[in-house]
Amino acid sequence: MELLSGADMLIRSLEDEGVDVIFGYPGGAALHIYDALFRQKAVEHILVRHEQAATHMADGYARATGKVGVVLVTSGPGATNTITGIATAYMDSIPMVVISGQVATHLIGGDAFQETDMVGVSRPIVKHSFLVKKSEDIASTIKKAFYIARTGRPGPVVVDVPKDITNPADLYEYQYPSSVKMRSYTPVLRGHAGQIKKATEEILNAKRPIVYAGGGVVQGNASELLRDLVHRLGCPVTNTLMGLGCIDGRDKQYLGMLGMHGTYEANNAMQNADLILAVGARFDDRVTNDPAKFCPGARIIHIDIDPASISKTVRADIPIVGPVVQVLTDMIEAVKQLNIEPDQAAQQAWWKQVDEWRAVDCLKIKPSDTELMKPQQVVEMLYKVTEGDAIVTSDVGQHQMFAALYYKYNRPRQWINSGGLGTMGFGLPAAMGAKMALPDENVVCVTGEGSIQMNIQELSTCKQYDLPIKIININNQALGMVKQWQDLHYEKRHSHSYMDSLPDFTKLVEAYGHVGIRVDRYEDLEDAMIECFKMKDKLVFMDIYVDPNEHVYPMQIAGKSINDMVLSKAEGS
Amino acid sequence: MRRIISILMENEAGALSRIVGLFSQRGYNIDSLTVAPTDDESLSRLTLTTVGDDSTIEQITKQLNKLVEVVKLVDLTEGAHLERELMLIKLKAVGAQRAELKRTADIFRGQIVDVTSTLYTIQLTGTSDKLDAFVEAVSGVPIVEVVRSGVSGLGRGEKVLSL
Ligand SMILES: Cc1ncc(C[n+]2csc(CCOP(=O)(O)OP(=O)(O)O)c2C)c(N)n1
Ligand SMILES: [Mg+2]
Fold this sequence. Notes:
The structure holds two protein chains of two kinds. Chain A is about 35% helix and about 15% strand. Chain A is built from 22 helices and 22 strands. In chain A, strands 3-2-4-5-7-6 form a six-stranded parallel beta sheet, with helices on both faces. In chain A, strands 11-10-9-12-13-14 form a six-stranded parallel beta sheet, sandwiched between helices. The longest helix of chain B has 13 residues, at about 55-65. The relative contact order of chain B is 0.21. The two termini of chain B are about 30 Å apart. The interface of A and B includes residues 124 and 131 of A. Thiamine diphosphate binds near residues 423, 424, 449, 474 and 479 of chain A.
């Protein structure tokens, strides 16, 4: 058997786990590990400019590919800088392993230099965490960490590694375990057959059914199956913010996104349905509005890998706990075998009603009464110029909602955003992670002048590793989403929602060695965007000035039903 | 409703803080908690009491089950079960009260385990209700100090919580 130091074992374990790239930043407690990295070629390391960005890059990489994203940082400040990124991944169930250096075992607990109780600090935002006690445990701990991160409901796992454990002078026999078994961790592998059959019968007998699908379908790689099922059922389907792309945005049965900024047709169809088939979605408060008033006439079938997601906010009538792939496969089989003729008259009446809601055309862009460009027009143009095929990451704010509503995603993992935590600063590093994973894809970050400044230092990393992503900065010179709420609920008192003294972004990106294009008029937008996407091997930052006073609509009225919504600014104020 | 949740968990550093953390993080309350190793050295058994409606308790048990170090758990209050708590109570005992306290302790099957010229320390085991009742019964006497172990328990008859 091979003899390796703890540091070498750690990196070899990553290699043996199939990791090709990790994102990180060095420091004292991680120096042995960094030295091990230096002496090998199998695992590429991307040096970021801030550890938070490393976690979002690993996250973007994971969301784009379904693989586990990997982060390596030092103890203390290096570790605490990852917290926002870990929380972001946790809220959206993204598989991630974060390896943090720790002070030497004998120093732990003594307030040593750069000591932070990383396992303690991260505890509420991880799926699990480990503090490695002995070098001999490194390989098995890494194996377990990856296994836990990617199975069941995926999530981030922290592995905290004290410096002495990685000492280059101490050698140990290395063997990477071929399998893991943990008596206390056994993800569900099959949904209940009886429940699946019963659910399928109810769906086929429903008069006003709707499918409500979320991020679990994307993460669970079940989009093809979901599309198959939905087409067999012939019923309307809506996606959550996290589920966008699992149904083709152009599909005739697709009603668009639901929820707080969901479409009129999606929210109304939910409220009036007699049966909701929820797949990999968790009845989040940004969807349900007041859960007590949620879809009163509907029977609810809920498929989820996580039993704790079922009946958490809204009671499920038929819960099915299991992997979406297996449950949907069995459901499709049940549809074939049950041979229940759907009630044609009921289906037609239901679609007639849905089409009336659709005819309201809630996403129609109202022409501007000033010279100013509308942010929606920017996303619409992006959709046109990229032919609907780019991978789009976003930051958080109004631009995020516009990117969700006005770009029609045609496949899963095409839309990447921080839905659960709503982390500003996520978009740029996430785009970088996606581009690392899929260098041949067009990767675009739709952002705002507020969000982009939260991780703008990564433009330097983009230069170093030659990551030619495109950044679409929808510049409304305001923390637009905050300002919108202040307009609506605080009598337009814009407390700290302005972004004055903005930098000249084009000059800034040029200083980082990239290309900047500023656009002020809608007439110039198309040509500028075409030019931007022609520069295939360059990072291009488009700074697009838009109407600072635009709001995102539709918008639910807080504390009411899912379909109590305002459709325009005129109606809203 | 009051529930007694009994948990078998990996006997590892950090497991307890994950369980306790879950309660504070999600806004559930713990009324009592006891934890100790079992006959199997790799496992600890934790018993806690909490109060909540059915849906809260359902969430609590689901969330606990998700913790990687939780091997198995049972809500003992769902079926017939035994529950016991230990109390040591130090009471002012002077004059006529000494005999009176001794009688009350006997009625509750308590034992006087330490005596000074002015104090009795009484040991009592039973359900939490019984311990409460004892405290109530001696309310005429000044209580100097009380310590309770928190509830532990197990299912009656064939029902067992094991691997
Ligand atoms: C890290 C972080 N801090 C604060 C917020 C609260 N917040 C949500 S949207 C928003 C404004 C975002 O501004 P910008 O990026 O310019 O986007 P816009 O809404 O203007 O499109 C803020 C401050 C957040 N989501 N994340
Ligand atoms: Mg803005």
